[in-house]
Amino acid sequence: MKSAVVSADEEERPEVPHVRRRRHGDGVLQALSLVRDPAWRARQASIVFAYVLALVMFVAITIDSPGFAAWSHVSVVLEQAAILGFAAIGETFVILGGGLDLSVPGMMSTAGILVARIAPSDGQLLKAIPVVLAIAVVVGCVNGLIVAYLRAPPLIVTLGMNSVLAGGLLASTQGLAGIGTVAHGVAQFAVGRVGGIPVCLLAWVVATGIVSWLLGRTGFGRSLYAVGSNREAAALAGVRVQRVEAMTYVVSAIGSAAAGIMLAGYLGQAYADMGDGYLFTAITAVLLGGALITGGSGHYVGTVAGALMLLFLDGLLAVLNLGPAILEIAYGCVILVSVAGTTLMTRRSRRGDTQERGAGDRSREAEVEGSV
Amino acid sequence: MKRASASTGWRKQARLISRRPVVLPIVLFAIGLLVMFHLQSRTESGSFMITMLQTSLPLMCVSLGQTAVIISGGLDLSVAGVMSITSALAASHMTGNGDMAVWLPIMFGTGALAGLVNGLLVTFGGLPSFIVTLGTWSILDGLALEILPTQGGSIAPGLENLLGSNAATIIISIGLLAVWAVVRSTRFGVTVFSLGSGEGAARQAGLHVNTAKVSVYVFSALTAVGAGLFYSAVVTLSGSPTAGDPFLLQSFAAVVVGGTALSGGKGGFLGTVFGALLLSVISQIVVFAGFQSYYSELAYGAILVIMVSVYSLPTLIAKSRRNTG
User: Fold this and answer.
1) How many CA atoms lie within 13 A of B299 on its CB side?
2) DSSP 3-state helix, strand, coil percentages of chain B (rounded to 5)?
3) Can you give the pLDDT of all 325 residues of chain B as single tens digits?
4) What is the dihedral of CA B50, B56, B62, B65, to 10 degrees?
5) Which residue range is the domain that position A94 belongs to?
6) Which residues between 22 and 41 in chain A have a beta carbon less than 8 angstroms from any beta carbon of chain B?
7) What are all long-range contacts of A114-118, with beta carbons under 8 Å and residues at least 24 apart?
8) At A117, which CATH number?
């Protein structure tokens, strides 16, 4: 009861470390102010924690079955992690902005099917990729416009969009019968190697760099954190809230489309429900990476650790001879634990923050609590 | 003293709960019905109507709980998982009539437990309902898959005999409406409505907010168990570990089309009933118009997105007026 009141109260308070960071020109001052910011510390801690956990899992599996750590195996795991990583790019943006995108699986399948349809061989790939991108942008725009401008709940809108995409695909492929093989180039994108390193892993590293730059160094990134922390405050500060929010869904659709193409390449074929497994995992990866489900806190670097962790979890269950049912149960538990953990951690750090900043907020809290 | 005034207050409020006009869903349903009659005249018979009502009963039942949760200001994604695990349990363990006495309580118990976990995490953990229920949905789906790895199995024939008749269909439909009428006029119902309008105000009014918030998820899970049972025992006559998955979107669509506000506090089950009926009319239209049944999934998604937008428009217009005025 008490905690619910506190969180409701704190949602009203602007918490925009990234904007603050920009205003301090001096590097040392900037670093100092960041380190003293408990919310920032909590975020860094949760990302570091995610990597430590991923490492622990990796070591645990390797101790049990040393074959897991062989490069021939690890590289395949990394390929799968890269696909998940791309699917989770958009989910990271959307969750940072305080939304949720459930149309990831639908968009992935759509992209995979379209690439298989339009480009059965390499020659047509130049035509297929722009078409897929265009459709992703349209899907993202529809999601984004309805969520941002009509203020409809993102979960419902994107769930509906997912159903539209999935239904359309099933109808166009006549159920599961319409399995198409993909062009050699698409397959190479997913499973090809450059000097022993998977192409899609290289693509993932590049994408991580671009996303980190977008989040940390651009106006869009800073606006996104502001919107996710406090919509009203961001609007008052002159952020074009609706445009930023809508953009996250476009990014999400494009990321999902890339992931769908990769998945088609990885599987060597495309079918109507190929993306379905990514509904839970994309969200789980973001949450495991320490992002706050209510928005405004988190980073894609954390999501990367989350994606690795999920793949290691997969490996761990395989080592223990546990089936897909247990995996799904584990995903659910991971969602609940990571959300509860991150929320508690952030809440505690913000409470500490409140005490540092003065009695104003506390007295308001006491007022609210007293009336309960 | 505060308590005393509150107890007379909630009775008054029960009468004051806005009687949301359910005109739009009824009109849409009527239009859908006319289109269906036009496409296939044999649908104009009473027996066809009863069959249609029967196939849409599971959706109505699960949407009853979903309506309550949405009115309280939350969302329940785990209904899909609860339906799946019910179907899996029924088809794998409740195969003979004698098993019913044991397994029916177990199923409802499982559902209640899932709802309780949702409710406790949302209420006392302070976590958003959609992510909590997303997590429990995944767990329940996994459990269902563990219990019944593939589609199939059989369900006690006694249940089909009991629930499958035309009379039972009508009685259950009326029963669902009656349950809603009762829920709405109780203190629990009023608390659910005021939770959706503003939790702080509900607390200050002295309502038992926490109890109601937990109970609404238990209620939702129990309706999902009922829906899963009816669906497996009467509609599909077998079990599936993914039986509930399509019902997630459909339950949201039925509630939204029915005019219940996703922001909470406003709405009701009557609209949801017409929303659910509209969905089953649409699926008939898709078939009679010569499209494959896959298109109904597309149509459900489209109608959900469109209706969410339509119901959001008034707020947008009001806001832009305020900005210009």
Assistant:
1) 17
2) 80, 0, 20
3) 444 444 556 666 655 554 556 788 899 999 999 998 888 877 778 888 888 899 999 999 999 999 999 999 999 999 999 999 999 999 998 888 888 888 999 999 999 999 999 999 999 988 899 999 999 999 999 999 999 988 888 888 888 888 888 899 999 999 999 999 999 889 899 999 999 888 888 888 888 889 999 999 999 999 999 999 999 988 888 889 989 989 999 999 999 999 898 888 888 899 999 999 999 999 989 888 888 888 888 999 999 999 988 888 877 777 777 766 5
4) -60
5) 2-371
6) none
7) A115/A182, A115/A183, A115/A186, A115/A260, A115/A261, A115/A264, A115/A270, A116/A180, A116/A181, A116/A182, A116/A264, A116/A269, A116/A270, A117/A180, A117/A270
8) 1.10.3470
Task: Answer whether B308's CB lies under 8 Å from B300's CB.
Answer: no
Q: Is residue A12 very low, low, confident or very high in pLDDT (cuts 50, 70, 90)?
A: very low
What's the number of CA atoms in the CB half-sphere (13 Å) around residue A235? 9
Q: Which residues of A touch B305 (CB under 8 A)?
A: 142, 146, 157, 160-161, 164
Closest-CA residue to A313 (of A299, A292, A333): A333
Distance CA A39, CA A59 (A): 30
Q: Where are the domains of chain B?
A: 54-244
In angstroms, the CA B80 to CA B153 distance is 19
Residue A150 corresponds to which tokens in the numbers above?
């009509």
Q: Does B210 touch chain A (CB under 8 A)?
A: yes
Q: Is A367 on the interface with B (CB under 8 A)?
A: no
CA angle A292, A293, A294 (to 5 degrees): 90
Alpha helices, DSSP H, located in B125-244: 129-147, 157-163, 166-185, 187-197, 199-204, 209-230
Q: What is the enclosing helix (H) or strand (E) of A181?
A: strand A180-181
Say what the alpha-carbon torsion angle A161, A164, A170, A172 is, to the nearest 10 degrees. Answer: -120
Say whether B152 sits in a helix, a strand or coil: strand
Residue ranges in A119-240 assigned as alpha helix (H): 125-150, 154-173, 184-191, 199-217, 219-229, 231-236
Task: Assign A229 a pLDDT band (cuts: 50, 70, 90).
Answer: confident
- Please name the residue of chain A whose CA is at the shortest distance from the CA of residue B145: A325
CA distances from A125 to A183, A199, A200, A203, A268 (A): 8, 17, 17, 18, 15
Instruction: Locate B173 and state its tokens.
Output: 């439909």
Give DSSP secondary structure letters for A111-129: HHHHHHHH-SSGGGHHHHH
**Which tens digit of pLDDT belongs to each residue from A297-330?**
888 999 999 999 999 988 888 888 888 889 889 9
Asked if A331 lies within 8 A of B309 by C-beta distance, the reply is no
Q: Which residue has the tokens 């806190």?
A: A297
User: Would the pLDDT of A362 be above 80?
Assistant: no
Contact A150 B199 (CB under 8 A): no
H or E stretch covering A269: strand A269-270
Question: What is the reported pLDDT for B94?
Answer: 86
Chain B environment of A335 (Cβ under 8 Å)? 131, 134-135, 138
Beta bridge partners of A139: none
Top-confidence residue, B65 or A184: B65
Closest CA to A255 of A214, A197, A296, A293: A214
Q: Count up the domains in chain A and report the number.
A: 1
